[in-house]
Amino acid sequence: MKILIYGINYAPELTGIGKYSAEMAEWLAARGHSVSVVTAPPYYPQWRVHDGYRAGRYAREERAGVSVRRAPLWVPARPGGAKRLLHLASFALSSLPSLLRAAVARPDVILVVEPALFCAPAAWLAARMCGARAWLHVQDYEVDAAFELGLLKGAWLRRAVARAERWLMRRFDRVSTISERMLALAVDKGVEPARAVLLPNWIDAHAITPDLDGGACRAQLGIPADAIVALYSGNMGGKQGLQILADVARLLDGEARLWFVFCGQGPERAALQARCAGLARVRFLDLQPAERLGALLCMADIHLLPQRAGAADLVMPSKLTGMLASGRPVVCGAAPGTELAGVITRCGLLTPPEDAAAMAEAVLRLAQDGAARAALGQAARRHALAHLHVDAVLGAAERELTALAVQGRTQASRARDA
């Protein structure tokens, strides 16, 4: 089977959508499929093109059996509102020639990853031109999230964009997304239920296990071996509402055994560091390479997952998979009734979004109760093994891709015979 994956994020980005797109491509290639990718130079989550890559240059490379084409894009130092839209549009325009060249190989399926929705029209058109099936995978309802978080404003603009999004999504042969609530939203947007597919983010639950030694990470940061560590690890952007982390750390500054580690990069890191000034038991760490991720996550006794109000059913945080696989409890800010809340109530403590006092109380409760930490951590690990292991998730995706490819070939054969 020939598969073309099209999206703005890809390896060597260590976190977020690029990580999952690369893992899917490499997993399918290892299964014997011919996989190619059209993407941008890596820039996330630092919002700066990585060393060794150029923002304004087309390039090709081979990564783990996958042919990767990279197209130029503009990367703003401080993304937001109109600048983020221009950033996404720059890739959608520059990548069109690369997409068309890749489509000449006549893939069976073109899978486009949202964000960016700007890329979806070209992906659909390229699929129709080369006889491929078109698949839209929604990692993040970027349009809804932008309006909910105030990055875009205006009732008339929201109605116009929603109509265009609905028209476009209905034309894809498959639309997948990463949670049940997000899948239901796709159906609400006009996708036929028969074309809607659940494709959650995954984790290699055999590579990240609760018994990995996080002692070296603690020693590196000067944290005592007997300390209770609350960890946030992931992107440091606007959607996470990270200012609450500083407030929680300050509220718990008197708890001598409790330390905080904030690991990640992104446009909000500097502001978070400034808010943590003077807090002796807060440590900052850059994103860690994949081979150190397990040890990092297992350094924690408690994982922190802040979330801005209004975003919990529009995105499912990709960092959650590793947290659960590590067998540690999660303290999460999310509204009751959301799908994220439903997961957390089984393996952690739920607090109202953007409520620092409530999150601090939950962290303190777990810090003082080792038995509760152990029980919730075991529940987190069981959930990861049952629902999120990479082979189970991508095996189901492979079966769906194969069925879609066969459907396309059958329709093409009938058209030739007619």
Question: Would you kindly provide a written description of the structure presented here, covering whatever features stand out?
Answer:
This protein is α/β, with parallel strands linked by helices and 418 residues long. It folds into two domains: 229 residues, Rossmann fold (3-Layer(aba) Sandwich); 173 residues, Glycogen Phosphorylase B (Rossmann fold). Helix content is 44%, strand content 16%. The protein has 16 helices and 14 strands. Strands 3-4-2-1-5-6-7-8 form an eight-stranded mixed β-sheet, with helices on both faces. The model has no long low-confidence stretch (mean pLDDT 91).
Evaluate the radius of gyration: 22 Å
The low-pLDDT segments are none
Helix content: 40-55%
Can you count the beta strands?
14
**Strand arrangement, major sheet:** 3-4-2-1-5-6-7-8
Fold-level CATH name of the largest domain: Rossmann fold
Largest sheet: 8 strands, mixed
What class do helices, strands and sheet pairing give?
alpha/beta
For CATH, the homologous superfamily of the largest domain is named as Glycogen Phosphorylase B
**Helix count from the secondary structure assignment:** 16
Topology:
Layout: E1 2-6, H1 17-30, E2 34-39, E3 59-63, E4 66-70, H2 81-94, H3 96-103, E5 109-114, H4 120-130, E6 133-138, H5 142-148, H6 155-169, E7 174-177, H7 180-188, E8 196-198, H8 215-221, E9 228-233, H9 243-251, E10 258-263, H10 269-275, E11 282-285, H11 290-299, E12 302-305, H12 320-325, E13 330-333, H13 339-347, E14 348-351, H14 356-367, H15 370-387, H16 390-417
Parallel strand pairs: 1-2, 1-5, 2-4, 5-6, 6-7, 7-8, 9-10, 9-12, 10-11, 12-13, 13-14
Antiparallel strand pairs: 3-4
Helix pairs in contact: 3-4, 9-10, 9-14
